[in-house]
Amino acid sequence: MSRVLIIESSARQQDSVSRQLTKDFIQQWQAAHPADQITVRDLAVSPVPHLDANLLGGWMKPEEQRSADVLVMAAPMYNFTIPSTLKAWLDHVLRAGITFKYTPTGPQGLLTGKRAIVLTARGGIHAGASSDHQEPYLRQVMAFIGIHDVDFIHAEGLNMSGEFHEKGVNQAKAKLAAVA
Predict the structure, then answer these.
(1) Gap between the Cα atoms of 81 and 87, Å rounded
(2) Residues ≥6 apart with Cβ < 8 Å to 148
(3) For 117-137, what is each residue's pLDDT tens digit?
(4) For the chain, what percent of residues have pLDDT higher than 90?
């Protein structure tokens, strides 16, 4: 049995493509892995606070409550990158001595053997373009903490004509079925 942590970050509750992809992912994952435990954390409904001195001093959750085998992030593209709520959550996750450590040869990720799946929703088409600061950033962050098995599923062209919107959603759903 694996534990799957899903991070929702879209401010939109209805008509959110990343939330639609998350729902589809959950259904497909549960069908393929019925014994797995899925936890959903919605950063738009319950945002994590930005880091401050009090919060930094209070982080001592037991290790057994901090683990997941599969991390699923639903990340709409806001201004070429991720929502600030997701960035705030990552600020809580990237912790020296917990998810990475410093060594004489540089930082080393401590979350080895984990997998991440990133479901994105984008108004334009950005995959592989210089305007995409979302995927490179999230790949770097995941690698920094030791997660190198990362799949991205992009629903792109959502704010373009209806044909692009439909094509973007359908392509993402097809890739989702292969990943789940």
Answers:
(1) 10
(2) 142
(3) 999 999 999 999 999 999 999
(4) 78
What would the two tokens of residue 89 be?
């959550």
Q: Count of CB atoms within 10 A of residue 62's CB?
A: 6
Q: Where are the alpha helices (DSSP H) in the chain?
A: 17-32, 53-57, 84-93, 134-144, 162-179
For residue 147, give the nearest of 99, 103, 105, 98 by alpha carbon. Answer: 99
Q: For residue 153, which amino acid is it?
A: I
CA 141 from centre of chain:
11
Q: Is the pLDDT of residue 61 over 60?
A: no
Q: At what angle do helices 17-32 and 162-179 cross, to 10 degrees?
A: 30
Contact of 116 with 71, CB cutoff 8 Å = yes
- Where does residue 132 fall: left (phi above 0), alpha (psi -120 to 50 degrees), or beta otherwise? beta
Q: How confident is the model at residue 60 (pLDDT cuts 50, 70, 90)?
A: low
- 142-155, pLDDT tens digit by residue? 999 999 999 999 99
